[in-house]
Design brief:
By secondary structure, the protein is α/β, with parallel strands linked by helices. It has one domain: Metallo-beta-lactamase, Chain A, CATH 3.60.15. The strands form three sheets. An eight-stranded mixed sheet has the order 6-5-4-3-2-1-16-17. The radius of gyration is 17 Å and the shape is globular. Bound molecules: zinc ion (2 copies). The site of one zinc ion (ZN) has 5 residues, from loops.
Length: about 270
Amino acid sequence: MKLSRRHDARTSRGIVVTFLGTRGEIDVRSRCHQRHSSLLVQCDSARVMIDCGTDWLGRLEAVLPTAIVLTHAHPDHAAGLAEGAPCPVYATKGTWDLIDRFPIEDRRTLPLNKSLPIDGLLFKVVPVEHSVRAPAVGFRVSMKRRSLFYVPDVAAFRNAAGVLAGIDVYIGDGATIRRSMVRKRGRARIGHASIVDQLVWCRKVGIPRAIFTHCGSPIVRANVRTINATLQQLGRDYSVEARFACDGDRLFLADGRQARWTRERA
Ligand SMILES: [Zn+2]
Ligand SMILES: [Zn+2]
């Protein structure tokens, strides 16, 4: 079968991911980690923004999202919507219950453990353990045969192997490298899994690449090159190509190609 040039061009464009922000819920910031973690996923004309924390209040005009999707209701993920949104907003019922007061006009409810198309991208909504008060989800985002998993805040998965199988890139919680920040509330686990724990999950299912966002204070305060060298070495120990994201970093995922990473600023 001969593919038209137009089809070819569209296929090769694939998914473009921009790290709009990479900072966790902390007071410190740096040039590399200025704003609360948020991801812009682009595909054809879609511009889907995942999470919109306090740092994004009044800044949505520059992002021009066609949809905003929320992982959970903590302020570093949702409080940027306190004055409303210029597009449809997708969140789980548990998140809507907590941000009900926000003047958002077009509210859409995300079904748990199901997939739904958002502007041409397929989002699978995966509940994760992170907070009892603000229930969180991660997203498996797919387009054609490429997929990524975005989970900026995670203490644990109930079924990591099943959920993460077949992912091209894991984008995870960069709060802490080695020291676990997971605590127990009854039977629930809350807080943040270490990067080491997340690399173990990636290795188990053979995910080749992991990028960490939602960076914690020791990471934001560190020299960018030094801390990335530490993470790259750690990744090699687990057979995963690993790195921290900086605000503005981009990742390109296209069919039939290796994922490509650039530092060009958004
Ligand atoms: Zn957070
Ligand atoms: Zn959180």
